[in-house]
Design goal:
- By secondary structure, this protein is an alpha+beta fold.
- It has helices spanning about 70-80, 105-120, 125-135, 140-145, 180-195, 205-210, 215-220, 225-235, 235-245, 270-280, and strands at about 5-20, 30-45, 50-55, 90-95, 150, 155-160, 165-170, 225, 250-255, 260-265, 285-290, 300.
- The strands form 2 sheets. Strands 1, 2, 3, 4, 5, 6, 8 and 12 form an 8-stranded mixed β-sheet that branches. The chain has a 4-stranded antiparallel β-sheet with strand order 9-10-7-11.
- Strand 3 (about 50-55), helix 1 and strand 4 (about 90-95) form a beta-alpha-beta unit.
- Helix 2 (about 105-120) packs antiparallel against helix 3 and helix 9 packs across helix 10 (about 270-280).
- The longest helix is centred in the middle third of the chain and has 16 residues, at about 105-120.
- The protein is globular, with a radius of gyration of 19 Å.
- It starts with a strand and ends with a strand.
- Bound molecules: cytidine-5'-monophosphate (C5P).
- Cytidine-5'-monophosphate binds near residues 30, 137, 154 and 179.
- Cytidine-5'-monophosphate binds near residues 27, 30, 137 and 180.
């Protein structure tokens, strides 16, 4: 129980987020097609006297350092399962937008779990790690697994899917959006429309487009059922989507529950051009260029 273990973990974008009606437990059944992208946080676990969390990065001040941090909760849950004291220092190098709809908090939970498992020499079976991830949050199992996957249930039941390489630009908005608030707005809009919310499905043409690696085919089928709710709460996001289209993106959508917006582009060269256009538009705070699928949470060589 000495040394330090660093785990690198990717952000995600949802290329199809189909949302069903609210369940009795308050969650929503999803057909959630996740793609991990090459925008990474790193979590370093070091033996310590007590559980502590620190964070560095441009938005570090917006990351909770108490038990509200999924990295801390992951360490506690793993320690409890193993009958250990969660005596570990977790340092988060944060590059994924905070509260941005890119699973940044979930990523840190998955990374901390893997880092503590290695630090404490537990070799917890993968299936048990995935169970702990699901208990931490709906998106956390995907952060562990990475690549591309269909998430059903509340998003935690994963089936890997084939994916070619796709290039993206992410536009970071000022401030975050609360995921529960966006789901509540989804429910409000659904009730106001007076129509029944259909069961969520991942259409075959979307999965075929993802597997083909053809950006035009994927652009034609990208969709996020949470987008109207995110736009209702943050009307300014419409201007970011318009700026991305003007800059030459093949398609744009709100990432997960937002407010980060994701733009699919043809290649790395187009990504640089679209990012420059978005930066010049003044509609967003920052842009990031990334590609996917990216590997899930990975222990880095010491
Ligand atoms: O699972 P997680 O803790 O990340 O979910 C955060 C919140 O997002 C939930 O409390 C719920 O309000 C909403 N949510 C939902 N349906 C899902 C996933 C999340 O309503 N499938």
């Amino acid at each position: 129980m000495s040394g330090a273990v660093t785990v690198r973990v990717p952000a995600k974008v949802n290329v199809r987020l189909a949302v069903g009606a609210a369940r009795p437990d308050g969650f929503h059944d999803l057909a959630n097609v996740f793609l991990a992208v090459s925008l990474f946080d790193e979590v370093t676990a070091t033996a310590a006297d007590a559980l502590t969390v620190t964070c560095e990065g441009p938005d570090a001040h917006r990351v909770p350092l108490d038990r509200g941090n999924l990295a801390a909760r992951a360490a506690e849950m793993l320690a409890e399962r193993a009958g250990l004291d969660p005596a570990v220092h977790l340092h988060i190098d944060k590059r994924i937008p905070v509260a941005g709809g890119m699973a940044g908090g979930s990523a840190d939970g998955a990374a901390a779990l893997l880092a503590c498992d290695a630090l404490w020499g537990l070799s917890t079976p993968r299936a048990e790690l995935l169970d702990i991830c699901a208990a931490l949050g709906s998106d956390v199992p995907f952060s562990l697994v990475g690549g591309a996957a269909l998430g059903t249930g509340r998003g935690e039941l994963l089936t890997p899917v084939d994916a070619g390489t796709f290039h993206w630009v992410f536009a970071v908005a000022d401030g975050g959006l609360s995921t529960p608030a966006v789901f509540r707005e989804f429910d409000r809009l659904a009730a106001a429309s007076g129509t029944e919310v259909p069961a969520p499905v991942a259409p075959p043409e979307l999965l075929a487009a993802l597997a083909s690696g053809d950006p035009d085919a994927l652009a034609a089928t990208l969709a996020n059922d949470l987008q109207p709710a995110a736009l209702s709460l943050r009307p300014g996001l419409a201007g970011v989507l318009a700026a991305g289209a003007d800059a030459g993106a093949l398609a744009g959508l709100v990432s997960g529950s937002g407010p980060t917006t994701a733009f699919l582009v043809r290649d790395a060269e187009a990504a640089a051009k679209v990012a420059a256009g978005l930066d010049a538009s003044g509609t967003c705070r920052a842009t990031h260029v990334a590609s996917g699928p990216a590997a899930g949470a990975t222990v880095l060589p010491a």
